[in-house]
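Interim report, section 4.2 (structural modelling).
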Amino acid sequence: MRQARPPLRWRLREMGLDGVTLLVVPGVLFVLALFIYPFVYGLVLSFHPKQGGAWANYVTFFSNPYLYNTISTTLGIAIPATLINVVASVPVAMRVRLMKRQRLLTTILVIPITLGTVMVAEGLLTFLGPRGWFNRLLLLSGLVSSPVGLLHNYWGVMLSLVITGFPFTFLLTLSYVTGIDPSLEHAGAMLGARARQRFFRIILPLLAPGLAITLALAFVQAFTVFPSAILVGQPQGTTRVISIAAYQAAFEQYDYSLASAIAMLMALVQVVIIVLLLGGRSLLFRGPASSGKG
Amino acid sequence: MHRGLSERLWAIAIWAVVLFFVVNLLAMIAAVTVDSFGTRWFNTWLPAGFTGQWYAMVWNEFGLPAILWVTVEVVGAVVLISGLIGVPAAYAMARRNFPGKQAVMLLFLLPLLVPPITYGIPLATVLYRAHLAGTMNGVILANLVPALPFVILVMIPFVEQIDPRVEAAARVFGAGTFRLFVQVLVPLLTPGILAALLLVLVRTIAMFELTFLTAGTDSQTLVVALYYAVFAAGVRPNQSIDAMAVVYMVTTLIWLLIALRFVNPTQIVTRAKQ
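Predicted structure of the assembly:
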């Protein structure tokens, strides 16, 4: 006698599909409709330029220095900012992890992340201006004879990226550093390794995968710097970043097709950098950094 | 452990850098606050006198009440909708293994990893074509794109902490999925839901890029209005811009402090990004 097949509902449930699983559907549909679809739409739109053939937008971008220079300008801001933030985060996180009461410091540092770049830009304009407290103090100390111009140029944007970016990389690094089992370092210390050796031979290799992620996230954020490049930078010149070019194409020239092309190039640069960083990460040690019961 | 001199100097150098950063950060916030209450401020450490007139000006002449009301509506809608869709979705993600689950997980991670300006431009284009951009609904939809996945990813570990036997017991006593949610899961998940929604609230108040790209003149939130005020500096007295900045700061930081009662500052970064 042939065994009857179980009903469809049972078989689906066996695969993990039942009424509860359906609860995920609205969320999936929403992200598909408002994240994936716009991306695909933008990609297709970028190949339907206002004039010319399918690649006309990309040809325009790479033949107009006012447009293609934005990539090097943006990299010239984003790469140093990312390196400063990540390199400074590691020693600070190494110190702070030993602190008993980190809460006050981490709370203060989460403030600039929360306030965001627009507020930080306004703060910098008031604080660093020629008559602001920062320049008054410098003049009083006799270090400079005239106010330092840190606004409306490259340095304004750099400072804004450090103020919002450093807390971000620091808190992320801190979470990775505290995830490393201290007994590994103790073992190194008992075998006679000095602090420097312990850091470079034990901590850093364990931290490297986390640092790769931190670098990738910090870079992507710095690469898409937007409001501060306009408010405290020099948006026609030294800080004309790629997001400004994309914004102007869309909302000043109403060329959504070119704007989509620039947005796609922006995404492409981010993907390339992330693949390089995370690809390098796969070469690194990926075993457990915490010990015992996982 | 014996610590050498160089090690001690290194520690002092690190603390000096941290102190320099924190002092400048706090001074920056203080400078904005002092300026917003100042009458005139030239070449002195403090303004010539103090006044509340700039707040009155922002309130009466620059339409602050309307901006605040738009902010409340947008943020309220985003929090409500992301909670209603996100919490059940997180429950399904935590409790079921289904084919394609990893792809769905990646789908929820992407809007948090890709910076808003990158997807904001194509998203705004689509919303303009659909005649939604420039309206309140468009702003709410755009802000939901990062908010909804955020709620889902924050909630998954909270759901996983609940003993499945509690749910099984409720099922045995005949509770359907809806009753299970209302009477069992929501009460147990309250700390998690509060944490997730408060963080979404703070992030939405501060979300500049997506709101900026999709807002019309009557759908600007506080942060976008602040941007336009700073952008057009010179049109208004600088103190009034700082008054607006203080209103924005107070609004954001109050909610941040409330949120920090439920989460660690470190988690704001890590939960959001992993």
